[in-house]
Amino acid sequence: MRVLVTGANGFIGRASCFFLDALGHQMVPAVRRQSGIADEIIVSNALCWQAALSGCDCVIHLAARVDHMNNHDQEAQKAFRANNVELTIDLAKRAVEAGVRRFIYMSSIKVNGEETAAEKSFGSEDPANPKDRYAISKWEAERELVEIANQTGLEVVIMRPPLVYGPGVKGNFLQLLQAVDKHRPLPLGGIENQRSLIYLGNLVDAIRACLRPSW
User: How far apart are CA 95 and CA 99, in angstroms?
Assistant: First the structure.
């Protein structure tokens, strides 16, 4: 299967390309700037997308804006919408034009909200309740993708993972690992809340399962 992966130079993207390539899939890594990944396609305009999507059976859309989630000014809102909604919809429409059959969209559990009742996890039937700009943009993209699927027959798979950890992780989770590595005392005994996590390898395997065609 020929698979286009956006955000191929990211945390999840690199692992996905490596794993799926090892399984015999023909990977098409798409990035915005040169990153050193083998056979990567630098996407900067419509012609680049056309070349990247040519002959592809599936798209795994991982690229997204994730920084400054709690910034509520108008410019931040525009940036999240441009990167996480408009780019996603444009890619999905181009994928339909190129004959792609399946579109896997990496959303976020933050679409469901920031917290649940004690000892309860979010489920697939729970209503959306996004709070910050990032989550709202992901929810808007989801709804637009469902509409495209209904209109065109494109098979859309939406994944909402919780916090992902594994080799190469960055951000707050990396800082926590560094604190533990330095034997710093952490006040975890006084914290009652729980967090759901998913290991990078398990998420990539879930993506592999979503590649399975229905045709």
Answer: 6
Q: For 78-129, what is each residue's pLDDT tens digit?
A: 888 999 999 999 999 999 999 999 999 999 999 999 988 877 889 888 999 9
pLDDT digits (tens, 9 = 90+) for 132-186: 999 999 999 999 999 999 999 999 999 999 999 999 999 989 998 999 999 998 8
Map out the domains of the chain with their CATH numbers: 2-210 (3.40.50.720)
Output the pTM of the full model. 0.91
- Chain position carrying tokens 């209109």: 151
Are 115 and 62 within 8 A, CB to CB?
no
Q: Which of 22, 36, 1, 19 is nearest to 204 (CA)?
A: 19
Amino acid present at 110: K
The residue type of 164 is V
β-bridge partners, 156: 103
Q: How far is CA 115 from the centre of its chain?
A: 20
Instruction: Measure the CA–CA gap between 206 and 211, rounded to whole angstroms.
Output: 9
Q: Which residues are catalytic?
A: 134
